[in-house]
Amino acid sequence: MDPVHIIGAGVSGLGAAHYLAKRGIPSVIHETGSHVGGRAACIRQGAHAFEIGGKNFSSAWPRFNALLDEFGITEFEDQHPGFHIVLRDKLVALEKSKTLTGDLRLASALGPRGALQFRNFLTYARQNADRLNYSSGLIEEVERRWDHATIDRHFTARLNEGPLRLFSIIMGGAEPSELHPSLMMLFASGFGKGSHHAVAGGIGRFHDSLAAGKTIRFGARVTRIKLFDGHVSGIEVQDETGTRMEPVRRVISAVPAHVLRQLIDLPAYGRVAFDRLRYYPLALVNAVYDAPVFRDGVHSIMFEPGAPLGHCSANRLHSPHHVRYTLSGKAARDILDRSDAELVRIAEQTFSKRLPISAKRLQVHVARHPGGICGYAPYFTAVKRDILRAVDGIHGFEIAGDYLEGHTMEGCLTSADLAVQRLVTAPSQSSAAAA
Ligand SMILES: Cc1cc2nc3c(=O)[nH]c(=O)nc-3n(C[C@H](O)[C@H](O)[C@H](O)COP(=O)(O)OP(=O)(O)OC[C@H]3O[C@@H](n4cnc5c(N)ncnc54)[C@H](O)[C@@H]3O)c2cc1C
Q1: Cα of 154 from ligand 1 centre, angstroms
Q2: In this structure, which topology does domain 281-370 adopt according to CATH?
Q3: Percentage of residues in the chain having pLDDT higher than 90
Q4: What spacing in Å lies between the alpha carbon of 277 and ligand 1's midpoint?
Q5: Domain Amine oxidase spans what residues (predicted)?
Q6: Which of the 8 DSSP states describes residue 224?
Q7: Is the Cβ atom of 10 under 6 angstroms away from ligand 1?
Q8: What is the mean pLDDT of residues 286-302?
Q9: Does residue 51 have its Cβ closer than 6 Å to ligand 1?
C-alpha cells in the first residue's frame, strides 16, 4: 500500500502517523528539523532534558491519556498549585484551588467588580467545560456573544492586567488586547477540567513512544504541495541532497497554518480564512542553576505588561533550580531577533527585579517559536468551516494542527485523528467523478 506522506513531526504529525498505523496504513513523515516534538519537543543536553514548549496535560483529555496508557507511561509530576502575578508592582498570589471558592487577597487586588467578573467567567467555563470545544457548537454561541471585541474591552482594567492576562500570556503568548473571549473561554474550560500533570522525566518519553516504528525523514523540508486536476500529485522536498519532486497521492499537513499557507494553492476564500489566523511568536529559555532560584512559596510568576518576560516558572514543582523563562507578549516580540545570549541576559535581569538570582547558571537552552503557542482567529468556527471546505475540495489532502480542534496537545491529537478519518473515508477521485 502507498504510504501517506505527513509534513511535520510535531504532536499533530506523530499523532497522524499513529492513527494511520492503527488502521494498518503506512506513513512517511517529512520533518525539516533534526528531532521530533516540534513546539512540544524535549531536547537532551548533557544530563538535562529541556522541554522547549508544551508539556502539561489534563487527566480529563481522552486521547492524550489513552496514549499514555498504551505506552505504559504512568509516572507524572504535579503542576504548580498557583501563580504569582505582578499586579501594581506587587507579587500577588493566585491559588488555583481558591479562585472559585473566593480568595480575599485576590478580591482585594482585583476590586469587587473585577473579582465578580472573574468568578462568573470561570464558573461559566467550568460548568460548560464539556461543550466548549470546536465540535459541540457552544463555542460558536460564545463567539457570537463576545468576539466583537478583544478581551480587554470586556473586563475591568485590573482583571486585564492580572488573571486574564495570565491566561492570554501563558496560553496564547499574547496580550488581552490581541485576543478575543472565545479563545480565553476555550483555555479556561480545557485546562479547567481534571488534574494537571507533566510526564516524569520529560514529555520526550511521550514523543519517543509515538515515533517508535514510524518512518521519519529528518532534515527534509517540504517546500511545495503539487496539485493536478484537484488531486495531490506530488511534494517538493528539500534536503541535504538538493531539491526534488516526489510523486505522492495522499498528504496530511501537520505544520502550523502560517507554514501551510505558503505550500499549497487554495481557492480565494480558503486563502482569506488562513490569513485570518494569527500566531504570536515567542522564545523559551530553559536554564539550570546550581541552587534554587524559586523560593518562599513562589513557583511561577507572570510579569507586568511592558516587561519582556511574559511568564516564568520552575520547570517542575520540585525543581526550583530549573527555570523556564518565556519571552512572550508585545514587548517580547520586539526583541526576539536578538542573540541567544542577549535573550538570556534580558530574561534573568527582568526576573531578578522580582526574585533576585544569586545562583550560578550551569546550562542554558534557547528555543524560538515563530508559531508561538497556537494559531487563532476570532469567530474561529466560521474561519474553520472555510478552511475545511477549501481543503475538502482537494483529493488526497488533509490537515491536522494546533489551529483546528483546540490549542493543546489534546487538540492536536484530535485534529490528527479526524484528519485520518477524513482521509480514509473520502471517496477516491475516480468514484467521485463517476458520481
Ligand atoms: C511555550 C509553549 C508552551 C506550551 N504549553 C503547552 C502545555 O503545557 N500543554 C499543551 O497541551 N500544549 C502546550 N503548548 C502548545 C503545544 O505545544 C502545541 O499545540 C503543539 O506542540 C503543536 O504541535 P503541532 O504538531 O501542531 O505543531 P508543531 O509542534 O509546530 O510541529 C510542526 C512540525 O513541522 C515541522 N515543519 C515546519 N515546516 C516544515 C516543512 N516545510 N517541512 C517539514 N517539516 C516542517 C516543524 O519543524 C515541527 O517539528 C505550548 C506551546 C508552547 C510554544
Answers
A1: 30
A2: Polyamine Oxidase; Chain A, domain 2 (3.90.660)
A3: 73
A4: 16
A5: 11-423
A6: E
A7: yes
A8: 94
A9: no
